[in-house]
Amino acid sequence: MNELAVARPHQPPRVLVLDDDHFMLEMLKDMLEQIGVRDIYTEANTRHALSTLAEASPDMLICDLALPEMDGIEFLQAAAERGFGGVVIVLSGMDSGVRDAAGELARVLGLRVAGIFRKPIALDQLRSAVTC
């Protein structure tokens, strides 16, 4: 059974999207709304995203890897250190080796990885990862 459904029966997950590309943030927000997600937090800044992670307690984190200040891998480490218990989707334009390594590291850190995708993600891929 879907772990998110157990935590919050019959409710779509609360999702934090972290990407420094504002167009990508808007696109992902629109896609999430299309699949029924209503509580969506978008952040382009990793420091703000860490605050949002603590304050909003999202069920899911969609994280880009190529970020200024703190890259996506460092952000995932920080999220794990802060006890993030939600599901992670890794999303990046980097090559598959880098994406897969980031996903494996997230698992080693104790994070639950719902998917690792190349940008731009297709709506069906996102739907599958959000409802897995």
UniProtKB/TrEMBL annotation:
Entry keyword Phosphoprotein: yes
Range of residues in the leader sequence: none
Pfam families according to UniProt: Response_reg
InterPro entries xref list: Bact_response_regulator, CheY-like_superfamily, Sig_transdc_resp-reg_receiver
PTM-bearing positions, type 4-aspartylphosphate: 64
Assigned keywords, A-Z: Phosphoprotein
PANTHER family xref list: RESPONSE REGULATORY DOMAIN-CONTAINING PROTEIN, STRESS RESPONSE REGULATOR PROTEIN 1
Descriptive protein name: Response regulator
Domain called Response regulatory: residue spans: 14-132
Gene3D superfamilies noted in UniProt: 3.40.50.2300
